Amino acid sequence: MSAAIAATAPSAFAADAPVLLDQELAQPHISGYGEIYLGGLYFATPGDDSDGTTAGGAVRVNFPIDARWNIQTDAVIDSLWVEGTNIYSYGGAIHGYWRDPSSYALGGFATINGFGGDNGIGDADLYTFTVGPEAQAYFGNVTIYGQIYYGQLRASGFSEHLDNWGGRGVVRFFAQDNLRFDGELGFSRLSADGGHLDTVTAALQATYRFDGTPWSVFGRYQLDHLTISEASGSVNIHKYVVGLRASFGSDTLLSEDRNGATMDTFRPNFTIPAPL
User: Which residues, 6+ apart, have CB-to-CB distance to 107 below 8 Å?
Assistant: First the structure.
């Protein structure tokens, strides 16, 4: 991924003109998008590999408070089927931030997610929450995005909890106003009683929006590398998805990134973020 970023850097940083919109879209207004996806997972574990099917979606809407202050709300769902067993997560996020479309955005976010599915998973009333700061920097047709967070994984009725902290960095490169490439790296740790589960994430995504329409298509590959402190070996989870997005209140992917619902959050390949 670093080689690809290096190869595109000269043209990316040379295009340092601000994003221009028509007069109507340049005014603060509500905008956002909804998306759905379908794909597969491949679990590579020592001595035992397995496959799964995944599907999900998200709705993200940005509400401008004034010319610079914004609130964005997210709703997400993700479902996984492996060997006849279904587990799923559902939840949302809220972002509050100050944005100059020609320079940067700075703010914070909070998330909450619940879990359910077969084999009694839903009976445990599992949920997780996170809070943290986030920022974006704009360089012509390149966006650099970073988040760090802290949270907990809890089960209703139990006093014990697992601490969860991590961070992620994303580079978005717009080869054209309606053609976007993303590269992402992240780290997350879930810990309790001296033990921990670490997840290192790497992802690549391509998104294309059809000119003059609200419709986009995208494809994404994400690798989660999981290690448990008390166990030897590791688990690699590969996730491949294709999806469809419908946007409103923006005319291109680039204008959506700088003036619309530009924030998102980490979503692990495996719905429940720990082997409980």
Answer: 70, 95, 96, 97, 98, 133, 134, 135
What is the distance between the alpha carbons of residues 166 and 188, in angstroms, rounded to a whole number?
Answer: 4
| 70 SS3 class | strand
pTM: 0.85
Q: What is the DSSP string of 89-142?
A: EEEEEEEEEEEETTTEEEEEEEEEEEEEETTTTGGG-EEEEEEEEEEEEEETTE
- The residues facing 196 across adjacent strands are 191
Give, for all 276 residues of the chain, the pLDDT tens digit: 333 333 433 444 344 444 554 444 567 899 999 999 999 999 887 667 788 999 999 999 999 999 999 999 999 999 999 888 898 999 999 999 999 999 999 999 999 999 988 766 656 688 899 999 999 999 999 999 999 999 999 887 666 788 999 999 999 999 999 999 999 999 999 987 778 899 999 999 999 999 999 999 999 999 999 998 877 778 899 999 999 999 999 999 999 999 999 999 999 987 665 443
